[in-house]
Amino acid sequence: MVKKIRKAVFPVAGLGTRFLPATKVMPKEMLTIVDKPLIQYSVEEAIEAGIEEFILVTGRGKQLLEDHFDHAYELETILAKRGKAQELDVIERIIPDPGRMSYTRQRHPLGLGHAVWCARQFIKNEPFAVLLPDDLILAKPGCLKQMVSAYENIGGNIVAIEEVPREHTMRYGILDVAEDDGYLARARGLIEKPTPDHAPSTLSIIGRYILQPEVFNHLDKHETGTGGEIQLTDAIANTVGDIPFHGIRFEGVRYDCGTKSGFVAANLAFALERNDLEADIRAIIKDLV
Ligand code: UTP
Prior knowledge:
It is globular and about 60 Å long. It is 32% helix and 24% strand. It has helices at residues 38-48, 63-68, 73-81, 85-92, 112-117, 120-123, 143-154, 215-219, 232-239, 260-272, 278-288; strands at residues 7-11, 32-33, 36-37, 53-58, 101-105, 128-131, 135-138, 157-163, 173-180, 184-192, 203-211, 245-249, 253-256. It has a single domain (7-288), classed as Spore Coat Polysaccharide Biosynthesis Protein SpsA, Chain A. It contains eleven helices and 13 strands. The protein is an alpha/beta fold. The site of uridine 5'-triphosphate has 21 residues, from helix 5.
Protein backbone atom coordinates (compact mmCIF):
# COMPACT_ATOMS: atom_id res chain seq x y z
CA MET A 1 0.00 0.00 0.00
CA VAL A 2 1.41 3.41 -0.98
CA LYS A 3 1.02 6.46 1.23
CA LYS A 4 -1.79 8.76 0.06
CA ILE A 5 -0.78 11.97 -1.72
CA ARG A 6 -2.23 14.69 0.53
CA LYS A 7 -0.01 17.66 -0.18
CA ALA A 8 0.81 19.64 -3.29
CA VAL A 9 3.45 22.26 -3.98
CA PHE A 10 2.81 25.06 -6.47
CA PRO A 11 6.08 26.77 -7.40
CA VAL A 12 5.01 30.27 -8.39
CA ALA A 13 8.13 32.32 -7.71
CA GLY A 14 9.34 32.63 -11.31
CA LEU A 15 9.76 36.07 -12.86
CA GLY A 16 7.56 35.42 -15.91
CA THR A 17 9.86 37.48 -18.15
CA ARG A 18 8.29 36.08 -21.33
CA PHE A 19 5.06 37.79 -20.40
CA LEU A 20 6.32 41.30 -19.77
CA PRO A 21 4.82 43.86 -19.53
CA ALA A 22 1.76 41.87 -18.28
CA THR A 23 3.86 40.39 -15.47
CA LYS A 24 5.50 43.64 -14.37
CA VAL A 25 3.19 43.87 -11.35
CA MET A 26 0.91 40.88 -11.88
CA PRO A 27 2.15 37.33 -11.22
CA LYS A 28 2.17 35.10 -14.31
CA GLU A 29 -0.05 32.65 -12.44
CA MET A 30 -2.81 35.30 -12.29
CA LEU A 31 -2.99 35.43 -16.12
CA THR A 32 -6.54 34.55 -17.01
CA ILE A 33 -7.81 31.74 -19.19
CA VAL A 34 -11.36 32.81 -20.10
CA ASP A 35 -12.41 34.03 -16.63
CA LYS A 36 -10.20 32.16 -14.19
CA PRO A 37 -6.55 32.68 -13.29
CA LEU A 38 -4.06 29.90 -14.05
CA ILE A 39 -3.40 29.23 -10.37
CA GLN A 40 -7.05 28.45 -9.74
CA TYR A 41 -7.14 25.85 -12.51
CA SER A 42 -4.22 23.99 -10.96
CA VAL A 43 -5.58 24.23 -7.40
CA GLU A 44 -8.89 22.81 -8.68
CA GLU A 45 -7.01 20.02 -10.49
CA ALA A 46 -5.27 19.19 -7.20
CA ILE A 47 -8.54 19.17 -5.25
CA GLU A 48 -10.02 16.77 -7.82
CA ALA A 49 -7.01 14.48 -7.24
CA GLY A 50 -7.68 14.37 -3.48
CA ILE A 51 -5.09 16.94 -2.31
CA GLU A 52 -5.86 18.40 1.11
CA GLU A 53 -2.94 20.79 1.70
CA PHE A 54 -1.68 23.39 -0.77
CA ILE A 55 1.74 25.01 -0.48
CA LEU A 56 2.46 27.98 -2.73
CA VAL A 57 6.13 28.89 -3.09
CA THR A 58 5.93 32.57 -3.87
CA GLY A 59 8.31 35.46 -4.43
CA ARG A 60 8.38 39.20 -4.72
CA GLY A 61 5.14 40.77 -5.94
CA LYS A 62 3.03 37.64 -5.55
CA GLN A 63 0.62 38.98 -2.87
CA LEU A 64 -2.21 38.98 -5.38
CA LEU A 65 -2.13 35.16 -5.28
CA GLU A 66 -2.78 35.18 -1.52
CA ASP A 67 -5.56 37.72 -1.94
CA HIS A 68 -7.18 35.59 -4.63
CA PHE A 69 -7.68 32.74 -2.14
CA ASP A 70 -8.94 34.97 0.68
CA HIS A 71 -12.16 36.84 1.42
CA ALA A 72 -12.82 40.12 -0.41
CA TYR A 73 -15.17 41.62 2.19
CA GLU A 74 -16.12 44.80 0.32
CA LEU A 75 -16.92 42.95 -2.88
CA GLU A 76 -18.78 40.20 -1.02
CA THR A 77 -20.90 42.77 0.85
CA ILE A 78 -21.83 44.60 -2.35
CA LEU A 79 -22.69 41.38 -4.19
CA ALA A 80 -24.83 40.23 -1.23
CA LYS A 81 -26.65 43.59 -1.10
CA ARG A 82 -27.38 43.37 -4.82
CA GLY A 83 -28.67 39.81 -4.51
CA LYS A 84 -25.94 38.43 -6.79
CA ALA A 85 -25.93 34.97 -5.24
CA GLN A 86 -24.28 33.21 -8.18
CA GLU A 87 -21.37 35.66 -8.40
CA LEU A 88 -20.95 35.51 -4.64
CA ASP A 89 -20.75 31.74 -4.81
CA VAL A 90 -18.12 31.91 -7.58
CA ILE A 91 -15.76 33.99 -5.43
CA GLU A 92 -16.44 32.26 -2.11
CA ARG A 93 -16.21 28.68 -3.38
CA ILE A 94 -12.49 28.99 -4.11
CA ILE A 95 -11.46 29.92 -0.56
CA PRO A 96 -9.77 26.96 1.12
CA ASP A 97 -10.54 26.08 4.75
CA PRO A 98 -8.28 27.93 7.19
CA GLY A 99 -4.84 26.33 7.42
CA ARG A 100 -5.13 24.31 4.22
CA MET A 101 -3.22 26.78 2.05
CA SER A 102 0.26 27.87 3.09
CA TYR A 103 2.76 30.24 1.57
CA THR A 104 6.50 30.29 1.71
CA ARG A 105 8.89 32.62 -0.07
CA GLN A 106 11.68 31.47 -2.32
CA ARG A 107 13.43 34.87 -1.97
CA HIS A 108 15.77 34.27 -4.93
CA PRO A 109 14.59 32.47 -8.09
CA LEU A 110 17.40 29.90 -8.08
CA GLY A 111 15.48 27.30 -10.06
CA LEU A 112 12.51 24.94 -9.85
CA GLY A 113 14.38 22.44 -7.65
CA HIS A 114 15.18 25.21 -5.18
CA ALA A 115 11.54 26.40 -5.19
CA VAL A 116 10.36 22.88 -4.30
CA TRP A 117 13.09 22.59 -1.62
CA CYS A 118 11.67 25.76 -0.01
CA ALA A 119 8.48 23.77 0.74
CA ARG A 120 10.32 20.96 2.60
CA GLN A 121 9.13 21.96 6.10
CA PHE A 122 5.53 21.69 4.95
CA ILE A 123 6.03 18.35 3.20
CA LYS A 124 8.11 16.66 5.92
CA ASN A 125 8.41 12.93 5.28
CA GLU A 126 5.58 12.08 2.93
CA PRO A 127 5.05 11.80 -0.83
CA PHE A 128 3.69 14.92 -2.50
CA ALA A 129 2.60 16.40 -5.81
CA VAL A 130 4.08 19.36 -7.67
CA LEU A 131 1.99 21.33 -10.15
CA LEU A 132 3.33 24.12 -12.37
CA PRO A 133 0.32 26.34 -13.00
CA ASP A 134 1.60 27.61 -16.35
CA ASP A 135 1.22 24.09 -17.75
CA LEU A 136 -2.54 24.03 -18.14
CA ILE A 137 -4.06 20.67 -19.03
CA LEU A 138 -7.48 20.13 -20.53
CA ALA A 139 -8.33 16.62 -19.37
CA LYS A 140 -11.16 14.59 -17.89
CA PRO A 141 -10.35 13.34 -15.31
CA GLY A 142 -7.65 15.90 -14.56
CA CYS A 143 -4.01 15.04 -15.20
CA LEU A 144 -3.03 14.78 -11.51
CA LYS A 145 -5.98 12.49 -10.79
CA GLN A 146 -4.82 10.21 -13.62
CA MET A 147 -1.33 10.21 -12.12
CA VAL A 148 -2.60 9.45 -8.60
CA SER A 149 -4.53 6.44 -9.98
CA ALA A 150 -1.34 5.11 -11.57
CA TYR A 151 0.63 5.91 -8.41
CA GLU A 152 -1.68 3.75 -6.31
CA ASN A 153 -0.45 0.75 -8.34
CA ILE A 154 3.20 1.53 -8.96
CA GLY A 155 4.31 4.04 -6.27
CA GLY A 156 7.67 5.79 -6.56
CA ASN A 157 8.34 9.00 -8.46
CA ILE A 158 6.01 9.75 -11.37
CA VAL A 159 6.04 12.54 -13.94
CA ALA A 160 3.55 13.43 -16.66
CA ILE A 161 5.10 13.05 -20.10
CA GLU A 162 4.34 13.84 -23.71
CA GLU A 163 6.06 13.23 -27.02
CA VAL A 164 7.84 16.30 -28.48
CA PRO A 165 9.52 16.86 -31.85
CA ARG A 166 13.23 15.95 -31.55
CA GLU A 167 14.26 19.50 -32.46
CA HIS A 168 12.52 20.76 -29.27
CA THR A 169 14.26 18.53 -26.69
CA MET A 170 16.38 21.47 -25.53
CA ARG A 171 13.29 23.04 -23.98
CA TYR A 172 12.42 20.14 -21.63
CA GLY A 173 13.52 17.47 -19.21
CA ILE A 174 13.76 14.29 -21.30
CA LEU A 175 13.32 10.69 -20.07
CA ASP A 176 15.88 7.97 -20.57
CA VAL A 177 13.48 5.07 -21.05
CA ALA A 178 14.16 1.48 -19.95
CA GLU A 179 10.74 -0.01 -20.70
CA ASP A 180 7.65 1.43 -22.34
CA ASP A 181 4.17 -0.08 -22.69
CA GLY A 182 2.75 2.93 -24.54
CA TYR A 183 1.11 4.29 -21.38
CA LEU A 184 3.75 4.00 -18.68
CA ALA A 185 7.42 4.47 -19.41
CA ARG A 186 9.79 3.13 -16.76
CA ALA A 187 12.84 5.37 -16.81
CA ARG A 188 16.44 4.80 -15.82
CA GLY A 189 17.18 8.51 -15.80
CA LEU A 190 16.36 11.90 -17.21
CA ILE A 191 18.32 14.74 -18.69
CA GLU A 192 17.46 18.42 -18.45
CA LYS A 193 17.28 20.22 -21.79
CA PRO A 194 19.50 17.93 -23.93
CA THR A 195 20.42 18.89 -27.46
CA PRO A 196 18.51 16.82 -30.06
CA ASP A 197 21.52 14.60 -30.77
CA HIS A 198 22.09 13.89 -27.05
CA ALA A 199 18.42 13.36 -26.13
CA PRO A 200 17.88 9.74 -24.97
CA SER A 201 14.23 9.88 -26.17
CA THR A 202 11.63 12.43 -27.24
CA LEU A 203 9.48 11.96 -24.13
CA SER A 204 9.40 15.29 -22.33
CA ILE A 205 8.38 15.96 -18.75
CA ILE A 206 5.61 18.47 -18.24
CA GLY A 207 4.67 20.34 -15.09
CA ARG A 208 3.07 17.56 -13.01
CA TYR A 209 5.03 15.39 -10.59
CA ILE A 210 4.39 12.91 -7.80
CA LEU A 211 7.54 12.74 -5.71
CA GLN A 212 8.91 10.90 -2.72
CA PRO A 213 10.44 12.99 0.06
CA GLU A 214 13.87 11.45 -0.72
CA VAL A 215 14.24 14.07 -3.50
CA PHE A 216 15.01 16.55 -0.70
CA ASN A 217 18.22 14.64 0.11
CA HIS A 218 19.66 15.85 -3.19
CA LEU A 219 18.00 19.27 -3.14
CA ASP A 220 19.56 19.88 0.30
CA LYS A 221 22.94 20.02 -1.44
CA HIS A 222 21.92 23.03 -3.56
CA GLU A 223 23.84 21.72 -6.56
CA THR A 224 23.30 23.72 -9.71
CA GLY A 225 22.68 22.04 -13.06
CA THR A 226 21.66 23.12 -16.57
CA GLY A 227 21.44 26.91 -16.90
CA GLY A 228 23.11 27.41 -13.50
CA GLU A 229 19.78 26.59 -11.80
CA ILE A 230 18.98 24.09 -9.06
CA GLN A 231 17.03 21.57 -11.13
CA LEU A 232 14.20 19.37 -9.86
CA THR A 233 15.00 16.85 -12.59
CA ASP A 234 18.54 16.36 -11.18
CA ALA A 235 17.05 15.51 -7.78
CA ILE A 236 14.70 12.95 -9.36
CA ALA A 237 17.53 11.46 -11.47
CA ASN A 238 19.52 11.07 -8.27
CA THR A 239 16.94 8.73 -6.76
CA VAL A 240 16.85 6.38 -9.77
CA GLY A 241 17.98 2.91 -8.67
CA ASP A 242 16.55 3.42 -5.16
CA ILE A 243 13.04 4.54 -6.08
CA PRO A 244 10.98 3.40 -9.10
CA PHE A 245 10.58 6.19 -11.63
CA HIS A 246 7.88 6.30 -14.30
CA GLY A 247 6.55 8.71 -16.87
CA ILE A 248 2.83 8.55 -17.60
CA ARG A 249 1.28 9.55 -20.92
CA PHE A 250 -1.76 11.36 -19.54
CA GLU A 251 -4.92 11.66 -21.60
CA GLY A 252 -5.64 15.28 -22.43
CA VAL A 253 -4.13 18.32 -24.06
CA ARG A 254 -1.47 20.43 -22.40
CA TYR A 255 -1.09 24.15 -23.09
CA ASP A 256 2.18 25.86 -22.21
CA CYS A 257 0.74 29.10 -20.89
CA GLY A 258 4.25 30.36 -20.18
CA THR A 259 4.43 31.11 -23.92
CA LYS A 260 2.24 33.62 -25.73
CA SER A 261 0.98 31.20 -28.37
CA GLY A 262 0.21 28.52 -25.76
CA PHE A 263 -1.66 31.06 -23.67
CA VAL A 264 -3.82 32.22 -26.61
CA ALA A 265 -4.46 28.59 -27.67
CA ALA A 266 -5.53 27.71 -24.10
CA ASN A 267 -7.98 30.60 -24.05
CA LEU A 268 -9.57 29.40 -27.27
CA ALA A 269 -9.64 25.73 -26.25
CA PHE A 270 -11.12 26.40 -22.81
CA ALA A 271 -13.67 28.83 -24.26
CA LEU A 272 -14.77 26.19 -26.79
CA GLU A 273 -15.43 23.83 -23.85
CA ARG A 274 -17.93 26.27 -22.37
CA ASN A 275 -21.62 26.01 -23.29
CA ASP A 276 -22.11 29.75 -22.77
CA LEU A 277 -19.27 30.68 -25.16
CA GLU A 278 -18.75 27.92 -27.69
CA ALA A 279 -21.04 29.21 -30.46
CA ASP A 280 -19.72 32.79 -30.23
CA ILE A 281 -16.07 31.71 -30.21
CA ARG A 282 -16.57 29.38 -33.19
CA ALA A 283 -18.12 32.26 -35.14
CA ILE A 284 -15.27 34.60 -34.17
CA ILE A 285 -12.57 32.09 -35.19
CA LYS A 286 -14.34 31.46 -38.50
CA ASP A 287 -14.47 35.22 -39.18
CA LEU A 288 -10.81 35.68 -38.32
CA VAL A 289 -9.42 32.88 -40.45
P1 UTP B 1 9.70 29.04 -15.98
O1 UTP B 1 10.84 28.32 -16.57
O2 UTP B 1 8.47 29.15 -16.81
O3 UTP B 1 10.22 30.48 -15.54
O4 UTP B 1 9.36 28.35 -14.60
P2 UTP B 1 9.42 31.79 -15.20
O5 UTP B 1 10.33 32.71 -14.46
O6 UTP B 1 8.11 31.48 -14.51
O7 UTP B 1 9.05 32.43 -16.61
P3 UTP B 1 9.99 33.12 -17.74
O8 UTP B 1 10.80 31.98 -18.33
O9 UTP B 1 10.84 34.18 -17.10
O10 UTP B 1 9.01 33.70 -18.70
C1 UTP B 1 8.59 27.17 -14.51
C2 UTP B 1 7.85 27.15 -13.18
O11 UTP B 1 8.77 27.12 -12.10
C3 UTP B 1 8.56 28.22 -11.22
C4 UTP B 1 7.82 29.26 -12.05
O12 UTP B 1 7.04 30.09 -11.22
C5 UTP B 1 6.99 28.38 -12.96
O13 UTP B 1 5.80 27.91 -12.30
N1 UTP B 1 9.87 28.68 -10.72
C6 UTP B 1 10.93 28.72 -11.58
C7 UTP B 1 10.01 29.03 -9.40
O14 UTP B 1 9.05 29.00 -8.60
N2 UTP B 1 11.24 29.42 -8.97
C8 UTP B 1 12.32 29.47 -9.79
O15 UTP B 1 13.42 29.82 -9.31
C9 UTP B 1 12.15 29.11 -11.13
